[in-house]
């Protein structure tokens, strides 16, 4: 049995140890906020944090998450009370179709939490593993920079 | 007033918290997974279909063309594309057998256990060698021969553009099930009433027995205009045979290999000019590759043809165009819809003309560009809302174009520099709404409802696919009524709840359907005034008014239908007249740098001004412009579907590369608002416009940087290196 912490809650999983983490999250734990875009680690839509680090959950077998902490988009705010980062995305136009958004948020969240630099180049580098086809990235980058500035105050 | 303000997007909080339910997130009890067995030859007859006896087929449901209760047809324009290949296959990845199983992995395993034998037939892959023409057009204005006879110079050029994958991040996904005798299909789609039209013929059912409901949709860009009709048919066939819900969610490689893309094109220009650079005649030939079935090719070609002469006045024009059949998966709608192909040629051709005349392309554009009163190639006189010149001048000024041309010339002349630098321009128009008489045939309807409880609901079949439809509708409706935007919600596109507003395509949602919503709301306003004495001022007041207006029924609907503006005339037979009610305009400057050793291109800055009549929500409008331009930069520099034996061989995001945050430059966007008298609050079309001209602006910048005019996209390092030899 695989034991892990998901969004602060203890969870266990008894299925196939090589089941992809994304499928465990979505199918076994009903956390459908994590999205699949390509299934091969290119698009980043399935990004979750594993012990705080962004990973493509479509490439992680469940057994690799054994004993570790997983954070998904559901760990951030709720519609009635968005997190600062989510508020930043809403104010700056950082989400359009929304399918890349959960992964994008998790990467940005990890970057900000680890005190990553908030200049444009650093933010673009941090987000470069997450594809977005709608926005052209500028408003996403603005969202992250705005949030970083707000957090420093 | 809400219009003109950056209201936060309606769907934002749900999308930002992972609560928004895309089709694959929807829990459908008892749902099986559908998969597709596809042709492995580009052209041939099906000799036999065999099912591996070692596999437990009794666990599955299997469907072939024989199981289709109505017509084996995906109804769209021409009745030529089967839902499932029957006897003959005409392209690789054509669907032949469908399988559903309770377990997704087992369903895929089952698909591998189907053996199909073919008798191969010769395929045609080269559009210039195809003799099957789906559609052709001829536009003629003036006297072409007289124009060329008067010419000081004649300039010829040939330009080629590749296919392009929409690369929405959510793959195609549809589920189907039957409930109380009603066949329900739900999923990721742009055009619920297109799906309904196809389903009626496949299942020989009336509209009341079919219900199409959109789920939250993770991008479309045209790629979910027509294909969902096919996928809905597949899922529904399986669901009806299995007697339970079935969903089909494509994997990325399947979506890229099997579904529609942008039409590849060849465009040839022969242009006559005076020595001062005034256009005398344009003779243009356009060929597009439609793929194996006609699908939307005729209308894609139409838009391409109507934009082929560019945003310039020319007294003598001939445009001859055709779209042909090849044995490749059908090409279809992708943002721009044929216009980016012909505008690439029209705009880049100015660089060639500039060399021939010794006059720079900016000056040439200034001497010919559309103004109020100009006449287009179809004889349309532009009466209002012509922002082409303003877009051009704003872009030139803000980008520092003139100074950079000189500065980069000096930089490029120094052989010790590690890079070449260039800045390139392009300008375009883009017709909003359906072409010619298209909007008249569509006869779209939209409306608003007032419920007895005092809810205000926008009713339209236009889908939110990320572009901001729902936010825009609420803003237009609330201002038309004079109440806060928060009072309005927007109904889910569901063919049993909303009227047919036409498809969510052609940059028509805001201008056409938004206009209908505004009109319907004015009817509601009059009803408030006549029956309640005033437009309600508070939500408590609204509840009282609702009780009066609804007169005991649960809701009252106010619907209106599109009416042709009386001044618009169009002749489908001669292709003369007002091709579009109005045009939007854009200009763009691309500033880039090329590594002299590797020939890699880095875009440093994009400056663009776009005339969209009125920005209902400037933040969302700029988001469309930056996002659309980025797709254009991808097409110009990175993206190229590669085909071998009729199938895309780079059908993965690993080897089909779209721009990342590091490939994308800073954008400076300027909104130009030349109001259109028939658009809601002056608004014109926006969605496709920004896709149209990054391509030629990149190519012009590469020409400036390297001195080489490369007439083919994309400008990959390999192609630039080849040109430098």
What does this molecule look like?
The complex is a heterodimer of chains A (153) and B (725). Chain A has 153 residues and is of the alpha+beta class. Chain A folds into two domains: 2-75, Beta-grasp domain (Ubiquitin-like (UB roll)); 84-152, [2Fe-2S]-binding domain (DNA polymerase, domain 1). Chain A contains five helices and five strands. Chain A has a five-stranded mixed β-sheet, sandwiched between helices. In chain A, helix 2 (84-92) crosses helix 5 (138-152). Chain A is globular, with a radius of gyration of 15 Å. The termini of chain A are far apart. The model of chain A has no long low-confidence stretch (mean pLDDT 97). In chain B, a hairpin with a 2-residue loop joins strand 9 and strand 10 (182-187). In chain B, helix 13 runs parallel beside helix 14 (509-532) and helix 16 crosses helix 17 (694-706). Chain B is globular and about 75 Å long. Chain B has three domains: 23-123 and 167-258, Aldehyde Oxidoreductase, domain 3 (Alpha-Beta Complex), CATH 3.90.1170; 265-435 and 574-724, Aldehyde Oxidoreductase, domain 4 (2-Layer Sandwich); 444-561, Aldehyde Oxidoreductase, domain 4, CATH 3.30.365.10. Chain B is of the alpha+beta class and 725 residues long. In chain B, the strands form seven sheets. Chain B has a seven-stranded mixed β-sheet, with helices on both faces. The model of chain B has no long low-confidence stretch (mean pLDDT 98). The interface between A and B is large, with 58 and 56 residues.
Compose a concise summary of this entry.
Chain A has helices at residues 21-28, 84-92, 101-113, 120-126, 138-152; strands at 2-6, 9-13, 47-50, 53-56, 69-71.
Largest interface: pair, residues per side: A-B, 58 and 56 residues
Shape field of chain B? globular
Helix content of chain B: 25-40%
Percentage of residues in DSSP E strands of chain B: 15-25%
Largest sheet of chain B: 7 strands, mixed
Q: Which percent band covers the strand fraction of chain A?
A: 5-15%
DSSP summary, beta strand count of chain B: 27
Question: In DSSP terms, counting alpha (H) and pi (I) runs of 4 or more, how many helices of chain B?
Answer: 18
Main β sheet profile of chain A: 5 strands, mixed
Q: Based on DSSP secondary structure assignment, what is the total number of beta strands of chain A?
A: 5
Might you state the CATH topology name of the largest domain in chain A? Ubiquitin-like (UB roll)
**Which bin fits the share of residues in helices of chain A?**
25-40%
Note poorly predicted spans of chain A: none
- The appropriate CATH architecture of the largest domain in chain B is 2-Layer Sandwich
The first-to-last residue Cα distance of chain B is: 59 Å
């Amino acid at each position: 049995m695989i034991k892990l912490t998901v969004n602060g809650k203890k969870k266990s999983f008894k299925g196939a140890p090589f089941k992809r983490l994304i499928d465990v999250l979505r199918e076994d734990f009903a956390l459908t906020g994590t999205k699949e875009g390509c299934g091969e680690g290119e698009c980043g839509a399935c990004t979750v944090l594993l012990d705080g680090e962004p990973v493509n959950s479509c490439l992680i077998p469940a057994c690799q998450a054994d004993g570790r902490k997983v954070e998904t988009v559901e760990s951030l705010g709720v519609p009635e009370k968005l997190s600062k980062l989510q508020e930043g995305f809403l104010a700056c136009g950082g989400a359009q179709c929304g399918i890349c958004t959960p992964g994008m948020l998790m990467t940005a969240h990890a970057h900000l939490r680890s005190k990553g630099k908030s200049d444009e180049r650093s933010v673009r580098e941090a987000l470069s593993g997450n594809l977005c086809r709608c926005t052209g990235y500028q408003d996403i980058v603005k969202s992250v920079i705005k949030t970083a500035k707000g957090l420093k105050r | 007033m809400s219009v003109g303000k950056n209201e936060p997007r309606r769907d934002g909080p749900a999308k930002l918290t992972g609560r928004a339910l895309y089709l694959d997130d929807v829990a459908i009890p008892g749902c099986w997974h559908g998969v597709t067995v596809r042709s492995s030859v580009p052209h041939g007859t099906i000799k036999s279909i065999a099912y591996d006896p070692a596999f437990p087929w009794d666990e599955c449901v299997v469907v072939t063309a024989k199981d289709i209760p109505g017509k084996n047809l995906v109804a769209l324009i021409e009745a030529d594309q089967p839902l499932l290949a029957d006897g003959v296959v005409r392209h690789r990845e054509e669907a032949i057998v469908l399988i559903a199983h309770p377990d997704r992995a087992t369903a895929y395993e089952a698909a591998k256990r189907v053996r199909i034998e073919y008798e191969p037939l010769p395929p045609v892959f080269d559009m210039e060698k195809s003799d099957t023409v789906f559609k052709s057009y001829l536009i003629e204005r003036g006297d072409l021969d007289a124009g060329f006879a008067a010419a000081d110079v004649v300039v010829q050029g040939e330009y080629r553009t590749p296919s392009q994958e929409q690369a929405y991040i959510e793959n195609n996904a549809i589920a189907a099930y039957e409930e109380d005798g009603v066949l329900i299909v739900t999923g990721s789609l742009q055009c619920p009433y297109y799906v309904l039209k196809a389903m009626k013929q496949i299942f020989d059912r009336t509209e009341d027995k079919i219900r199409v409901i959109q789920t939250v949709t993770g991008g479309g860009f045209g790629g979910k205009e027509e294909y969902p009709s096919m996928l809905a048919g597949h899922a529904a066939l399986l669901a009806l045979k299995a007697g339970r819900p079935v969903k089909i969610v494509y994997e990325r490689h399947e979506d890229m290999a099997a579904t529609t893309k942008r039409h590849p094109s060849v465009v040839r220009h022969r242009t006559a000019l005076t020595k001062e650079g005034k256009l005398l005649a344009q003779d243009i030939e356009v060929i597009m590759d439609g793929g194996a079935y006609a699908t939307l090719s005729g209308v894609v070609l139409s838009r391409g043809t109507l934009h082929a002469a560019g945003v310039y006045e020319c007294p003598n024009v001939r445009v001859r165009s055709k779209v042909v059949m090849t044995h490749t998966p059908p090409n279809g709608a992708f943002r721009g819809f044929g216009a980016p192909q012909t505008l690439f040629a029209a705009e880049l051709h100015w660089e060639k003309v500039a060399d021939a005349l010794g006059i720079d392309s900016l000056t040439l554009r200034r001497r010919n560009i559309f103004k109020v009163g100009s006449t287009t190639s179809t004889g349309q006189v532009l009466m209002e809302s012509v922002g082409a010149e303003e877009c051009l001048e704003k872009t030139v000024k803000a980008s520092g174009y003139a100074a950079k041309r000189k500065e980069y010339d000096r930089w490029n002349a120094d052989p010790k520099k590690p890079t070449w630098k260039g800045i390139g321009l392009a300008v375009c128009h883009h017709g909003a709404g359906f072409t010619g008489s298209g909007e008249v045939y569509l006869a779209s309807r939209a409306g608003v409802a007032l419920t007895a409880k005092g809810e205000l609901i926008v009713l339209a079949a236009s889908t939110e696919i990320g572009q901001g439809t729902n936010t825009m509708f609420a803003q237009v409706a609330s201002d038309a009524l004079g109440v806060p935007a928060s009072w309005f919600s927007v109904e889910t596109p569901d063919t049993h709840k909303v009227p047919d507003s036409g498809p969510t395509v052609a940059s028509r949602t805001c201008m056409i359907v938004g206009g209908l919503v505004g009109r319907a709301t004015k009817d509601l306003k009059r009803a408030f005034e006549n029956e309640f004495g005033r437009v309600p001022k508070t939500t408590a007041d609204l509840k009282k008014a609702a009780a009066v207006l609804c007169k005991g029924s649960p809701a009252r609907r106010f619907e209106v239908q599109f009416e042709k503006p009386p001044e618009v005339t169009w002749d489908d037979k001669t292709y003369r007249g007002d091709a579009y009610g109005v045009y939007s305009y854009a200009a763009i400057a691309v500033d880039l740098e090329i590594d002299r050793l590797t020939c890699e291109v880095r875009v440093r800055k994009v400056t663009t001004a776009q005339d969209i009549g009125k920005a209902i929500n400037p933040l969302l409008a700029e988001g469309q412009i930056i996002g659309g331009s980025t797709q254009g930069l991808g097409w110009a520099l990175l993206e190229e579907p590669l085909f071998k034996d009729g199938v895309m061989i780079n059908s993965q995001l690993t080897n089909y590369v779209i721009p990342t945050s590091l490939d994308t430059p800073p954008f400076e966007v300027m909104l130009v608002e030349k109001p259109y008298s028939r658009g809601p609050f002056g608004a014109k079309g926006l969605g496709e416009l920004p896709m149209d001209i990054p391509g030629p602006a990149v190519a012009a910048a590469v020409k400036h940087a390297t001195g080489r005019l490369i007439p083919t996209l994309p400008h990959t390092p390999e192609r630039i290196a080849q040109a430098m030899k």
